[in-house]
Amino acid sequence: MTGPVAAPPQAPPTRRRWLTVVAVAWALLLGFLAYLSVRNDPPTVRDQRTVGEARPIVDRAVGELAVAAGSDAVLRISGYEVTGGCRITPFRSGETLERDVTIYTGETDGPDLLARIAERLPRSYEARVRTGKEHDSLRADAGEFVSVRGGVTAPGVLILTVGTGCRPSAPLGLDVPAPGDEDRRIADRMLVALGGTLDGVTLAEAPCPVGGTVRTVVATGSRTAAEKPLREVLVPLFGGAQAGPALVDTADRYAYRSDEAMVSVDAEEGSLTTAVTTPCGS
Predict the structure, then answer these.
(1) Angle at the Cα of 210 (from 234 to 172), degrees rounded to 5?
(2) Dist CA 19 CA 11 (whole Å)
(3) Whose C-alpha in 39, 44, 148, 254 is 20 to 30 A from the C-alpha of 266?
(4) What residues form the membrane-spanning segments (predicted)?
């Protein structure tokens, strides 16, 4: 028969208090370091940044693309398109934020321009162009899981989309710019001259990497009558003798540069979309 088992020795009360203090301090330190990491370190997965936190990176990429397009193209930038309903995980929904950069060039120059854009983007973007029989495309990484995707969509037309991918929802953290009275006056003048009626005017802006802002005013409307050819209407309105040669000149699409702006019109199936873009450096 064995005797009673002796209880293990217990730490003195003072030592137990010190162990508790150390454990709490260590937990607080780990929490503080995790907070600093989330605030300051680059994310290791997309959902560490909300769409609002990713928005400045999207804007920066739009400005980089505007510069990379060069002085031999016409472009327009879009505003913010936020789409909900995507899935971050099977149990967590989110939003995507995208902006488009539409670029017009000569009818056969799209693939060459796409390659030049890839070369002109910052090296950190690691831009790559893929050439195919039916489609030429570009892929790049603007940082923090913001992508640049797109390519040649029609002869002389490139569309590049800067997107965040699915992320936690959050306010964009800025006031969306609104067109001014002069913007509306010019838009209405263009639509009327083109035989249409003005439905709406929007303004989009992005910071240029060399300073300043690229700015696009887009007017949409309905074309009620086929008036003069697009060239005969647009050149006197914007540029006159200072207007450069047209990069795109078809029955339903026209794009050219003047000394101060880039102008484009898409007129298809009774609708009109006109854009006037002030480039970086203007």
Answers:
(1) 80
(2) 10
(3) 148
(4) 18-38
Q: How far is CA 70 from CA 15, 75, 183, 232, in A?
A: 71, 10, 25, 26
Report the C-alpha gap between 156 and 109 in whole angstroms. 6
Residue written as token pair 């990713």: 54
Token couple for 181: 């009275």
What's the one-letter identity of residue 170? A
Query: What are the structural domain ranges in the chain?
Result: 46-163, 181-278
Per-residue pLDDT of 42-76, as tens digits, reads 544 556 689 999 999 999 999 999 999 998 899 99
Structure tokens belonging to residue 44? 């290791």
- CATH code, residues 46-163: 3.30.2030.30
Helix axes 51-68, 110-120, angle to 10 degrees: 120
